[in-house]
Design a protein that fits this description.
single chain, 360 residues, 16% strand
């Protein structure tokens, strides 16, 4: 299967991994003009097919935060197994819609929730990718439903029409909407996890690690609840945009550097320059690791030239220093290889992790 590195240790006082180049809050202003390109390749991927519209949703009035506790609202009288094109921001755009799948044969719930964020280099992909069969991602969706988890998949804004932090603000808005409407959908507002692949892993990690940062998470859609989750799972993601170019060089001989790289277009700057490095730090999940970081499970490939595995190793090292429970599994495969989703041992590791940190 590959190399498995597991760390479970009690939370301790964090000295943390210092950001290279100080990270003052004002740095964010340089990155707020919108556009995460995701962890994909620099060649534009074909967008996924749009989901058929069979349902709708709207944003709600503010609701109290229910982080860390079960949903107090009554479960719906009848479970709706599939809702597509639910609007999590009521602005009429397809970028602000999500699909929601709920176990159909496990009673009325409330169900723990895995919010899956699609990849595509921050410039492509679609919420329907959760059903992809070419890389067996559909197996993960079925696995989660069979084990009693609801699965949500949001769309988000894509470059070149956006820039950081707007795509992660969309993900945060989707989580807030689902938590605020948990009673209606049969979900447990206190048992959420964020998960993603490639660029989606980057956006999901950013959202999971910054629930108290309104400057990063924004105020789109539903307010009054936050985007807190109990765990994060990343498949071949990018976690430190400052070092991606160097990591690609060391693993595969290089990628596209500078402002025209996918992560450069995401942040609107050259991540390899002194000025751009500060913006890249603002957009890097590793920057926000601390004692309150939820447990993390990482899968990465040793032959990955798009999101090289040192990205996951560096993230794990920061988690270890902060005393955050985490697991990292490396396999001898490239980016988005079907083994990530089809290997029974990896499937069981995923379920064990979610059961331990989310379902309990």
């Amino acid at each position: 299967m590959g190399t498995m590195i597991t760390t479970r240790r009690p939370i301790r006082r964090r000295t943390g991994r210092p950001a290279r180049g100080a990270l003052p809050a004002v740095v964010l202003a340089a990155a707020l003009v919108g556009g995460l390109a995701g962890c994909g390749t620099d060649a534009p991927p074909a967008p996924g097919p749009a989901a058929a519209s069979t349902g709708a949703g709207t944003t709600s009035a503010p609701a109290p935060s229910t982080a860390g506790r079960s949903n107090p609202a009554a479960a719906p009288a009848q479970i709706v197994p599939e809702r597509t094109d639910v609007a999590y921001v009521d602005d009429g755009t397809t970028e602000h819609r999500l699909d929601l799948f709920v176990p159909a044969d496990r009673g009325p719930g409330p169900f723990p929730v895995v919010v899956w964020v699609h990849g595509g280099g921050w410039k492509g992909g679609d919420k329907s990718d959760i059903g992809l069969e070419d890389i067996q991602m559909s197996q993960t969706k079925k696995l989660l439903l069979d084990r009693g988890y609801a699965v949500a998949a949001p769309n988000y804004r894509l470059i070149p029409n956006t820039r950081f932090p707007e795509p992660m603000q969309d993900v945060a808005a989707a989580v807030r909407h689902l938590r605020a409407h948990a009673g209606e959908y049969g979900l447990d507002a206190g048992r959420f996890a964020l998960m993603g692949d490639s660029a989606g892993a980057h956006l999901a990690a950013m959202t999971a690690l910054t629930p108290g940062r309104a400057d990063l998470q924004g105020t789109l859609g539903t307010t009054g609840v936050d985007a807190s989750v109990k765990a994060f799972v990343g498949f071949y993601g990018l976690y430190d945009l400052r070092t991606r170019t160097e990591d690609q060089k060391n693993v595969c001989g290089g990628g596209k550097p500078g402002a025209e790289s996918s992560h450069g277009r995401l942040i609107g700057a050259d991540p390899d320059s002194p000025e751009g490095e500060k913006v890249a730090a603002t957009a890097s999940p590793v920057t926000y690791v601390g004692p309150a970081t939820p447990p993390v499970l990482l899968f990465s490939g040793k032959e990955d030239c798009t999101a090289p595995y040192p990205q996951a190793e560096g993230f794990k090292a920061a988690l270890d220093r902060a005393g955050v429970a985490n697991e990292l599994t490396l396999i001898d495969k490239p980016h988005a290889d079907p083994q990530f989703f089809a290997d029974p041992a990896l499937q069981e590791q995923l379920v064990r992790f979610l059961d331990a940190h989310v379902k309990r």
